[in-house]
Design a protein that fits this description.
With 163 residues, this protein is an alpha/beta fold. It is built from five helices and five strands. The structure holds zinc ion.
Length: 163
């Protein structure tokens, strides 16, 4: 069993992330996908520590919809940051967490859509066939389904924590 969506590099886990991982292993998890925001250098730094705890850990790269606002007018920069982390971290296994969040609306919706679209494009162009999308609202689910249309399911291998 794999946890495919764990924000272990969040500041909230800074004090006890090793214990959290140990409990997950004790509960028979065989892998954990650690979500990392590519626009947050501090989270990326914490992720370096998290990924060293256990060889069952893998990670993601993406700009979360909550953090899309700074990319207004330059959504491609979000995709560039996502790509930079993919290139720098060999344990990246998915583009995420990305998507649309119309519940909290921390970023304008048009900016969220532009940032999401850029990262979907990146995921497709780079052959990154796994896209971990935030799905909090109906429109976000529809957008994710649309994104999935660009990603041939037959080319999507099952998650495998092995390198
Ligand atoms: Zn999440």
């Amino acid at each position: 069993m794999v946890d495919s969506h764990a924000h272990l590099a969040d500041e909230a886990f800074s004090a006890d992330v090793e214990a959290v991982v140990q409990r997950a292993r004790a509960a028979s998890l065989t892998g954990i996908l650690c979500i990392v925001d590519a626009s947050d250098p501090e989270e990326i730094g914490r992720a370096d520590n998290v990924l060293s705890i256990w060889d069952g850990l893998r990670t993601t790269s993406g700009v979360h919809p909550h953090r899309a606002a700074p990319f207004a007018g330059r959504p491609n920069q979000a995709a560039e940051l996502t790509d930079a982390r993919i290139q720098a971290e060999p344990l990246v296994r998915a583009v995420g967490e990305v998507g649309l969040d119309y519940h909290y609306d921390f970023a304008p919706r048009d900016v969220q859509r532009a940032v999401f679209a850029g990262q979907v494009r990146l995921a497709c162009e780079d052959g990154y066939r796994r896209l971990l999308a935030s799905q909090m609202e109906t429109e976000a689910r529809l957008a994710s389904k649309k994104a999935a249309e660009y990603i041939p399911p037959k080319n999507m291998p099952p998650y495998n924590p092995s390198p």
